[in-house]
């Protein structure tokens, strides 16, 4: 049995692979692959595996989006801390959905389910089965703190303490406190918002998600918009619309 691992957290990947070596000692493992970019390149060069274990949120995007695009026949066991991806996961050949930290016995049950379904010639769960599996398994969301920036074959980790804001132009950029502007692989600021801690970041407008640490204050203009005073220079106007002004004030003053 060939198993592909998609996981961007080294310690989690190591734990998963250790569990699999015990549960399926004859399995051949590929990966771990930490990014959508790596996974896409892997599928271009290799035949589809018998099974995929995929973290929903990889270093540069959502694995579900890639798998929807590639449409592999391989059944998939998703691992994640994000409950809201459950139904999307179900729609991509998902045979199980394990919430982190992945427990040995739950992974064992998922692999047993995979073997049973394969013997039956089926790789899918019913929606009712998935809902029953998820019942009572809600855990606090764990947000991305560090961002991986890819430039050709090079990968660079940007620590959360160095992030100032995210900017939408033709692409999604990350600006650091020392004024570096780096291209990310996020496709939209909506996608950025999904993985950031809302206690630390605020979506000021369509072009800007800003970290709390760089906001010095604000003033209200004649139209009711808030003009933010930032501790760094950004090319986009740091303004909050009248409709979001009250929400921003509550967030900023919390």
Strand content: 25-35%
List the secondary-structure elements in sequence, H or E: EHEHEEEHEHEHHEEEEEHEEEEEH
Structural class: alpha/beta
Using the alpha-carbon principal axes, give the shape. Answer: elongated
What CATH architecture label of the largest domain applies? Answer: 3-Layer(aba) Sandwich
What can you tell me about this protein's structure?
31% of the residues lie in helices and 30% in strands. It has 254 residues and is of the alpha/beta class. The chain folds into 2 domains: 2-134, 3-Layer(aba) Sandwich (Rossmann fold), CATH 3.40.50; 157-253, OB fold (Dihydrolipoamide Acetyltransferase, E2P). A 5-stranded parallel β-sheet has the order 2-1-3-6-7. A 5-stranded antiparallel β-sheet has the order 12-11-10-14-13. A 3-stranded antiparallel β-sheet has the order 15-16-17. The chain is elongated and about 70 Å long. The chain starts with a strand and ends with a helix.
Task: Give keywords.
single chain, 254 residues, alpha/beta, Rossmann fold, OB fold (Dihydrolipoamide Acetyltransferase, E2P), 2 domains, five-stranded parallel β-sheet, five-stranded antiparallel β-sheet, 8 helices, 31% helix, 30% strand, elongated
